[in-house]
Amino acid sequence: MPMTQYTTQLTVTLAAVFVLVTATVLPLQPVYAEGGARRDVMRAEDQHRQEAIKLAQEAADHSKQGHMGPFLTSAEAAMQHALKARKDAHVDAGIAELKHAVEHGSAGHGDVATKHAEQAVTHLSEK
What we know:
The protein has a single domain (5-125), classed as Four Helix Bundle (Hemerythrin (Met), subunit A) (Up-down Bundle). The protein has helices at 5-25, 34-64, 68-84, 89-106, 110-125. The protein starts with a helix and ends with a helix. Helix 2 packs antiparallel against helix 5 (110-125) and helix 3 (68-84) runs antiparallel to helix 4 (89-106). It is rod-shaped, with a radius of gyration of 28 Å. The longest helix is centred in the middle third of the chain and has 31 residues, at 34-64. It is mainly α.
């Protein structure tokens, strides 16, 4: 059965619309659906960084009050969160300061431990 002129024009028009819609929508889709997953990873890394900042500040506050037990607990927890945060120079510096804070806190050097914990907060807060 031969196609009529109306049917041919309709087919060509629908094919053109399909091509235009596909060409417009396809680039907006994440490749291999990794866009959402990567965004979730980045959000989790940022949450770990924020938690590390909060715990490092708590550690500094405990050290100022002379509470070395809670200081060590908070500083070690802050270091664990910082290790899970997205890596950059500031996070690496914050981790190093937290390690020094734990070492000095374990040795009973509260004033030095406080300074290292405060430096960790400063480094972790920078982006």
